[in-house]
Design a protein that fits this description.
2 domains; 4 helices
Amino acid sequence: MSTITWNSGEDINTGGGGCVSYGLLALAAIGVVIIVLAMIGPMLASTSLTSAVEAQQTLASTSLTMYTSLGVAYSPHAERHEEAPAIRDCLDQRGPYMVLKHVSAPTFYLVCQIDKLTWGLQAVDESGVEKTAFSPGNGTFQDVMDYLNKFTNKFKGTLPWMSAP
């Protein structure tokens, strides 16, 4: 009887690691597929196109909504203004310098000093959803106040979206 030996050049204790890695990767991929199917399942099971579109919009709005520390939900419209992220950050870090309310609409204006010379405002509806955020004119305090004084009054009290139900 002869004995045949096979020498692969690898240590016996290191073999099979690739198989385990591929197995774990496959399990992770299956998990991701299950999560995605659970999220879009209602859309796939829907019998009407309208319901599927509504479910998709709800999913998109739920997963993309971000809130400031003041409880304001961000709006995509504000992102048209390059200064919007700085205004959001300013309000989140320092809070508003003052709050004004539209004289006839349920809109609140949170004013914030972004830096030594620049000011901005965030318009928020009564439910706490941002309408826009920008710096009027050149962004000076005077420009912001000239813009707001045409249609707002100072607001004192609790912001409606921050009130306990």
